[in-house]
Amino acid sequence: MSTVESRPTAPARPAAEPARAPGRPPKEFDRPRFLKLFMGVFFLFLFAPIVLVVLFSFNSSRSLQDFQGFSTRWYETFFESESLRESLVASLEIALVTMVIGTILGTMLAYGLVRARTRVSSSLNVLMLVPLVTPEIVAGASALLLFTQVKLELSLTTIILAHITFSISYVTVVVRARLVSLSHEVEEASMDLGATRWQTFRLVTLPALWPAVVAAGLLVFALSFDDFVLSFFTTGESPQPLPVRIWTQIRFGVRPTINAIGTFMLVISVVSIGLALLLPRLFGRRESGLKVLLGREAA
Amino acid sequence: MNGNPNRRELLQGGAGLALGLGLAGCGVGNIDRGSLAETEKPIRKRVDGDLVYFNYSEYIDPDLVKKFEKRYGVRVRESYFDSMSAMMAKLRAGIAYDVIFPSAEYVQRLRSGFLLRRIDRDKIRNIDTVYSYFDDPWYDPGAEHGTPYGLYATGLGYRADKVTGMTGSWRDLGEADSGDRSFLLDDHQEAIGMANLVNGYPLNETDRDKLEESKDYLVDLKPKLRGVSADTITNMASGNAWIQHLWNGDIVNIRYQVDNPEDYRFQKCREGLPVGNDNFCIPVNAKHPGTALLFIEFMLEPEHAAQNVEWIGYPMPYEGAATEAFQGLVKDDPEINVTIEDLENGQQFENLKGDGRLAWDEVWTEFRVA
Amino acid sequence: MNENRFASGFLVPPGVWLLLLFVVPLVLVLALSFGYTDDLGEAIYSTRLDNYERLVDPDYLPVLFRSVGFALAAVVLCLLIGYPVAYYIAIFGGRWKNVLIALVVLPFFVNYLIRTYAWIAMLGDDGLVNGLFDSSIRFLNTPYAVIGGLVYGFMAFMILPIYASLDRMDPALIEAGKDLYGGPWQTFLHVTLPHTMQGVLAGSLLVFLPAVGDFVSASLLGGPEEVMVGNLIQQQFQASDNWPFGAALTVAMMAFLMIFMLFYLRAAARETREATA
């Protein structure tokens, strides 16, 4: 083969190395040390502001510069406020529904775009990208224009509708990247074995896509939970989602209650991610069935 | 693009889109312009449901809200906006708020569209504590559609312990020695208004040539600025700003957050003082105007107003407890207060007519991209 | 049922959804761009070309270039930082893969504004960093702070797609690649990178496009010169109350960005062909 390097850089290795279980670090790589350091620094920067937020949410004074003693007063303020609690619950509801429906629609779109070769699918291909190009402000304003024109009353529903609309593209892009590199042969093999197209999709394609779907779902949840622009335009009178509250409030100085809210959101995320990590276990049995069926890793 | 026939045709075709959609001439709003009759219907002062409240965030003492809820057995459903423009967008979408807080010129706007309910002042206890200046304000003759809420004035906040060379002029923003930590307020109304004042023109100047001068002043100011920002409190409290174009209440709020409040001062500038006020108003489509009226009355009670003033950091124009409370709050820097003299001698932002509004808009955009 | 029919069926629900809830509003925005505002500040649909005529001004170009420049810088930095992170987790993560990726995503669940203000508290002139090192470095109100804000805000969008495409890569391929090419770098360039190109493209797109229209970073972290297209648009919709001009700005910006979109589509299509070949 013309591409074989002539200089002997790596020591000669036994020829047929058995396929490893995915994820077990190959021993010869000397990269991990540098990468590990890199990861450490990365997480440091990533979490630095988070640590600050958590720390100062327990500050007994209002200062953001000096920590003056431990106190939970800001949490008390947060939990005592019925309207803040309502906002939090509203945000969670919105994010959950958006995540579920947005992921479903986005995955369907990704599948259709990759597997269907029609004129409709190529124009949808372009259309799918346009929401990504749309600045949030315009997304919000345009949604407001629509709801006003059809006289749909603004409420949690309108927020959810808007969130889903603008999350579909994210899901499609992420899922599609994975779908494209999935071998078509596996699906064809499945059908040769007698499965219908629908069964193939459910039992072969979807599990193979699952990590991408989960990643996309997490992304959508975070996007929705964090969104204040779209939400502001499409929210009804009350309760406003939490990020809208934070946006309108933060200009008046970061009251430590905001840090308490942020920390609380963090706790919620830990819980929800924990749940999300448990869900694939439910599909675990199916995967092993697949392994048996196909003789190798499918996911 | 000019003179290229294809593009022009394309644009015109696109313009025809509006026609084709049957939209041409339609506004984006859902709220039908009310009629005079609807706005005139008297409001019965009584509890008729929960209060749907729409205001800036952090602009009312939450304690008072709780007190009101307890006293009348209702809930106050709060939502917030961060600009007049945002408030209008939600109003136009047809949402039925019970009490809103427009600034003076917006009261005038809303009135002209018959969008505010008439408020019978005589029904409100303690209404006589309101400064007589507001008995017949320019934006609401007869004061029939609102009652003033907070008073504000625009000036320069500065670090007395860091800055030298403050001369009492707006020009200090660019010329005082601020260690290159000067911020202009990111508000087109305030910034252009200030530039007008510096050039010796009235606050609401709309003549294009004079506006060009104001624009030039702002553009020349740019290199001397560290930022153009509406984040006034964070900027000063974090030490990033030593001079910040801001509102008087911001200084009070900053002082609450720092260890050395006496070093943060407010300068009213001699070329001109922009002043203004927000107002309690009841929109024409309010579902619970009675509760709203009770709410206004509640806030006017002297001890409530005094408590509110200390919380929001802005003065409220009611004689007695409220005025005294604010005076006490800022006794080491009385400049922060807005007195009746300030109201009479200062200038207030007005509604600019079509071309003027557009001119201001263009000047601001040109300044920002320059 | 042949595959085309089957797969096309999948296109219907999302297609209809996007049509009704996205295309129609956008058409309304387009129509609005030909409108004006009345004295009450309300936007009125019309057939005027004033807004577009106003746009034909070379003064707007620097803002556009700056927005694209910042967004590209953000993409490059996200790639340089995000790819190794995704790589480590996918290849060396082992049992902890899921936990690690969750850790990466976790900060993004704390509200973006709260995180940004935390950075402001840390990097301010009197902030923690300057206090710690007894320095007075001006971090904030600079173009670097804006780009940093964009990178921090959009990092997850880069990491997740790359991770998803790395994760499905058979590590035996890397082994084989090392046999073929010898060194880790060569393996990476010739094996790993091409296989993850779709993920890289996806991540780059998901960072670039929203970054161009972002206004939060520039307004909180930037100086007077750091004005992006997103700020101009926000100004029109949220302060000046000039929705029609804002609509025109948006149409112009989106038309311009379509170019990048089409580039992505071509690249993605080419990758698809090569990957399935």
Average predicted local confidence, pLDDT of chain A: 78
Using the coordinates shown, work out and report the CATH topology of chain A: MetI-like fold
Largest sheet of chain C: 2 strands, antiparallel
CATH topology of chain C: MetI-like fold
What is the 3D shape of chain C?
Answer: globular
CATH architecture of chain C: Orthogonal Bundle
Strand content of chain A: under 5%
Basic shape of chain A: globular
Q: Termini distance of chain A?
A: 31 Å
**Series of secondary-structure elements of chain A, N-terminal to C-terminal:** HHHHHHHHHHH
Q: Can you tell me about this structure?
A:
The complex is a heterotrimer of chains A (299), B (370) and C (277). Chain A has 299 residues and is mainly α. In chain A, 72% of the residues lie in helices and 0% in strands. The longest helix of chain A has 39 residues, at 256-294. The model of chain A is unreliable at 1-29 and 285-299 (pLDDT under 50). Chain B has 2 domains: 36-146 and 281-300, Periplasmic binding protein-like II (D-Maltodextrin-Binding Protein, domain 2, 3-Layer(aba) Sandwich), CATH 3.40.190; 152-275 and 349-369, D-Maltodextrin-Binding Protein, domain 2. Chain B is built from 15 helices and 9 strands. In chain B, helix 7 packs across helix 15 and helix 12 packs parallel to helix 13. With 277 residues, chain C is an all-alpha fold. Chain C has a single domain, classed as MetI-like fold (Orthogonal Bundle), CATH 1.10.3720. In chain C, a hairpin with a 5-residue loop joins strand 1 and strand 2 (43-44). In chain C, helix 3 runs antiparallel to helix 10 (197-212). Classes of the chains: A mainly alpha (299), B alpha/beta (370), C mainly alpha (277). At the A-C interface, helix 1, helix 3, helix 4, helix 5 and helix 6 of A face helix 1, helix 3, helix 4, helix 5 and helix 7 of C.
Gist?
The complex is a heterotrimer of chains A (about 300), B (about 375) and C (about 280). With about 375 residues, chain B is α/β, with parallel strands linked by helices.
Q: Features of this protein?
A:
heterotrimer; B: 370 residues; alpha/beta; D-Maltodextrin-Binding Protein, domain 2; 2 domains; six-stranded mixed beta sheet; three-stranded parallel beta sheet; 9 strands; globular; disordered N terminus; C: 277 residues; mainly alpha; MetI-like fold; 13 helices; 2 strands; 75% helix
